[in-house]
Amino acid sequence: MAKHVLLNNVHHKDTRVLAHYAKEFADDVASVLVFPPEFVELQKEYPIFFQLDQQTKKYQCVVMLGLQKDENLFLSNTTPSGWDADYIPAMMERGPFLIGFQQQDPLSDPSPVIHIDMQHPKVSNDKGQPLFLEHGGNSPYLNHVATRLQSIHEGMAIQDKMFTGFTSCDLIEPVNIEFDLNNGEKCKLTGNFTINEEKLAALSADQLFELNQSGALQLAYAVVASVTNVRKLIERKNAKLS
Amino acid sequence: MLSISKQTEAIIHCQPGEIPNDIHQYQHPVVLKGLVKHWKLVEVGLQSPQKSVDYLKSFYNGKPVFAYFGEPAIDGKYAYNENATELNYESKKARVDEVLELIIEHLYDQQPPSYYIASNVIDANFPGLGDENNLHIPVTSKSSATESPVASIWIGNRSIARCHYDASDNIACVVSGKRRFITFPPDQIANLYPGPLAPTPGGPVITMVDLHNPDFEKYPKVKHALAVGQVAELEPGDGIYIPSMWWHQVEALSSYNILVNYWWSDAEKYMGAAMNVLYHAMLSLRDKPAHEKAGWKHIFDYYIFGEGEQPTEHLPPEAQGFLAPMDEMMSRQLRAMLINKLNR
Question: How many helices and strands (H and E) does chain A possess?
Fold first, then answer.
C-alpha cells in the first residue's frame, strides 16, 4: 500500500532513496508515461507513442521500454545506475516522489509541493542518496528530483495543448507494430498511436504556422523520428535471447 | 468597555478626494473626515445595504475569492481557538455575490454568522468600480517600489480584526457602516502580547488581548498600551491614515460594512520582507550564548540600525562591498550568497 506524505526536512531527516534501477524495485515495466518537454531527449533512444487513457479518454504519451509485459530492456547489470541509456524518463527518475498540492496560506491557491511514498521499495533509512544536508538544507539529489517533478508538472499542462494541436490537424493515427524475433517468435504490439507522417508533410502553411507557434510542430517531428527506435528495442531483445 | 480615551487627531476640513500632500510626514494616525464621501459606493450604501449590494454586483466579474466564515458564537471576532493553535473561523473560496446574499439574509439577525471578504484587490474582481470610486494617493511611487498604492475592498458584517501591524503605509476609507480604529505606536509590541507567528488570520501577528475586556492578570502590561493608545470612530465617507508598523485594531460595527484601503511601500522591491530577517535571526542569533549575542547587538546597531554613513565613511568606495548603498545588482549577489550559505 502506498503511503503518500508531504516531504519535509524534519520527518524525513534521515530518509534516503535508492536512486538506481532494478527489477526488485518494480522497475521492470514495459512502458512509462513521458511528457513533451522530454521528447527532444527521448527521441534519440526510445520509441515515443500515444495511448488512450481508458478513464479520461484522453491521449497520453509513453515510451516503450520492452516488447512484452514486465519487460524493461533498459535495465542493466553493467551500468552503475542500472539503466542503459543516456537519458532516463522523468517518471522513472522521480522514484518514490510525486507532486502534491498544498495550501501555503489560506488566501492563495494551492501550490505544488513534493510528496514521498514511504512504502516505496526505493525508500530506505540507511542506503541510498540522502534527501537533506546535515542541517536540513536540500541535498543535490533532492534538488535534481525537484527539477524532474517540475518538468512533469509543466509537461502535463503542455501535453493537453499539444494534443489539441495534433487532433485539430488530424495527425494522430493508430499503429500496429509487427516483427519477428531471431528465435522465430512472431510479435505484435497494439493499442499505440503515432503521428501520420504523410499528413504532417501535407499540412497547410497556416496549420504549420500555428503548430510551430504553439511548440507542437517540433514535438510531432520528434515522435516521427523516434519510431525507428523500435528497431533498437528489437535488437536489445535479440541480444538478450542470443 | 474600551479604556482608551485619547481620540486620534482628525483633519476635519478635508476636501473630498484630497489627501494632504504631506500625509506621510505624520508620525501617527490621522483621520481624514469626509475623504471619500463623494464616492458613488458611499452614496448607494447610505441609501440601503441592498442598493450597495446591487451596485457591487454590477461590477463583479464572477471570479471566486477567499472569504472568512465564522459561527454566530464568534460574533465576528476573528481570532483563535482556546489554545491558539487554530483559527476560530474557516477561510474558503466563494463567490462575492453569494457572500453578499448571505450578509443580506442575516442582516437583522441578533447573532448572525460571520462573513468577511477581506483585502480583495478591486481591479481583480470588480473591474470599473475603481474608476467611479477613485482616490489619488499623493506618493511619488517609483517603479522599483515594493508596493504602489492599490485599492482593496473589505466586505462583511460585524467584525473585529484583532490588533496587528502591517509593514506598508495605509489609507483606509470607510464606505458603509461605522468602523472603530484602535491604534498603538510600534514601541507597544511587548505591551500588546503578540500571538503565534503562525497560523495568523491574515499574515501579521495579532494581539492575544481582548482590548474590550482585557485580562489584566494574564496581560498586566496591556495597561501601558491602553494608556498611550488612541481611538477613532469613522462614519461612511471618512478615511484614516495609518503609518507603517503602527498597531491597529479595526472593528466593523454595523450589520453591513464596506471598507476600501490602499497600502503602499516605497521600499525597494529587491529587499523582500523584513520578516524573513527576523526568522533568520531566530535561527542564527537569538539563542547564541549571551555574551556572543550581546556583542552582536553592537554589530547590528553599527551596520543596520545606525545612522548615516558610519560603516563606509572611512573606507574607499572600491573596498566597501556590501557596505555600499544597496542596489538591484548587489542585492542579487547577496541573495545568491545567502541561498548558498543557508542550504546546509
Answer: 7, 11
